[in-house]
Design a protein that fits this description.
18% of the residues lie in helices and 33% in strands. The protein is an alpha+beta fold. The protein is globular and about 45 Å long.
Length: 162
Amino acid sequence: MGETIKVGMADLKICKEPDCLTTIGLGSCVGIALYDPLTKISGLAHIMLPDSTQIKNNSVIAKFADTGIKKLYDDMIKAGANRTRIVAKIAGGARMFALKNAATSSINIGDRNVEASKAMLKQLRIPLLAEDTGLNYGRTVILDSNTGDYIIRSVGKDTKTI
């Protein structure tokens, strides 16, 4: 393994093997991992909100599922990834706080982030190979650009690879 590159909240980065990408603190946020298995070009976005169209003067593209995933995809293609080979895995989108009427509430941002991420992947025709989303705990993720493995760590849980 090469260098481990940190991706902050509302941030995105790409790398090539042997480097890895990681982001910590995925609660209701979603970590979107994109990967080209032939070139080993990898990308990771840490999105916080589902939809940029409600915000005027959006300067933080990676904060939103719609603009963040598109930018990550474009950056990977510029770096040499082939659009027909890029695949995705996602993690996060937890319901971190129990709310009264949570089942009927539209404010569950985690679910909305997951739905928006899937919709954008579908729009870009990027197959979603695996996901570890929802529930009520945070996640730290690592994308291995050598293998495409998406490693998910959570406090008190076994490490999971999807």
